[in-house]
Specification:
By secondary structure, the protein is mainly alpha-helical. 54% of the residues lie in helices and 2% in strands. The structure holds calcium ion (2 copies).
Length: 226
Amino acid sequence: MSSGSERPELPAPQAPAGNLPAQLIRRYLRLFAFYDRDGDGRHTLRGDFDPVAAQLAKRWQGRCTPSPNLLQLLLDTYRHENSRRDSDQDGQVSQEEFVASHARVLAAFQADPDGARRFIVRSAGGFFDVLDLDGDGMLCLDDLAAFAAAYGHPSDGIAANLDAMLAALGLPAGLLPREAFLTLVEQYWFDPSPEAPGSHLFDGVGLSEPSPNQHLHQHQHGDDPD
Ligand SMILES: [Ca+2]
Ligand SMILES: [Ca+2]
């Protein structure tokens, strides 16, 4: 197989997803499916992110939270993110809008990798803190299972998948350190190589191979006659 920067063999540059590597489109669709908690094929606050925010905040009951009003911070963050992706501002994010927003983030990363890394440290790093219940700078299986469960996904496969990614990074099994988490997130979003350990970040939670809807499907298989 080719290594490094795989290119999609698609014409059709009119689509937002048209010049994204096919490998990354698949990953963004997998992420879309992961976030689609109620499985209705779109991202909404009511059906997906508000209940997730409530469940993640609830884990912290009786503990000292990483921010004064954690639930409100999560609700605001999800609202901001979903609105940013919602190009036509109809209150829901479609597969196309989701992939297109990641295409813009990828373009920003390619133009300014260091700036994009600082963004990852802020956004993904902030999220890491929300999951790291004991605040020791490592995510344990419980933290990752709680994240998957908040989105309604099974967690049986998480341990094996985590240990495989840790081994690929040369790290001991069982605990995901913050730096490794940020590396995996960066790889998942931006490194199209199927050999990148981060390409497996959302494996092990029972998601089937993403099924693009008609519009994206045409662009993933651009050699279709029509
Ligand atoms: Ca949904
Ligand atoms: Ca921890």
